Amino acid sequence: IAGITQAPTSQILAAGRRMTLRCTQDMRHNAMYWYRQDLGLGLRLIHYSNTAGTTGKGEVPDGYSVSRANTDDFPLTLASAVPSQTSVYFCASSQGYNEQFFGPGTRLTVL
Amino acid sequence: GESVGLHLPTLSVQEGDNSIINCAYSNSASDYFIWYKQESGKGPQFIIDIRSNMDKRQGQRVTVLLNKTVKHLSLQIAATQPGDSAVYFCAGSPSGTYKYIFGTGTRLKVLA
Fold this sequence. Notes:
The complex is a heterodimer. Chain A has strands at 4-7, 10-13, 19-25, 31-38, 42-51, 54-57, 64-66, 76-78, 87-94, 101-102, 106-110. Chain A has no helices and eleven strands. Chain A starts with a strand and ends with a strand. Chain A has one domain (4-110): Immunoglobulin-like (Sandwich), CATH 2.60.40. In chain B, strands 2, 4, 5, 9, 10 and 11 form a six-stranded mixed β-sheet that branches. A five-stranded antiparallel β-sheet of chain B has the order 1-3-8-7-6, with no helix packed on it. Chain B is built from no helices and eleven strands. By secondary structure, chain B is mainly beta. In chain B, 0% of the residues lie in helices and 56% in strands. Chain B has strands spanning 4-6, 10-14, 19-25, 30-38, 45-51, 56-58, 62-67, 72-77, 86-94, 101-102, 106-111. Chain A binds chain B through residues 4, 31, 33, 35, 40-45, 48, 50, 56, 58-59, 90, 92, 94, 97-105, and chain B through 32, 34, 36, 42-46, 49, 89, 91, 93, 96-105.
């Protein structure tokens, strides 16, 4: 059982480029989330989805978009990356309002 | 606004001693709280959770205490081991939402 997988593991990106971070879960959880983790700021919620076809904004949604075409996949897109989006990105899922299971993270550097 | 924060950024504990990590929250509507452990280079891992209708919950070597009056929760780790060295986060969510708010984290260092 893989749980949650994220790709890529790490990426260096030029500012202004478009980037999609991929996230897939095999637990059939209804809810999925994207967080960014920066030093001294903990994890901050970017976007979430409580079921396929619906998404919602978290604390820091600007500059990011998500889609939830099916239960398993929840990609995060940076339409035009900026250096302030340099961070470690974690995808997570949960069944209802319960514990979240996290992926291994994607380390993104925007130059 | 909502916030969930931790009192101490780093906690050093002697191996075998008990550890207590504290967390404060500001939103009285938060009714579900989770403690996570994050090891270097990995994603957060669930430790234990508690809902607002409880004051205490115990797991294997861990206990979470919730004081709704002062909006405070704590994580107690019994007989701390070297493998417990990690960053610990608390997170809370208001009733009926998926908008979890995480604290900034406490680094636990276990001294041999």
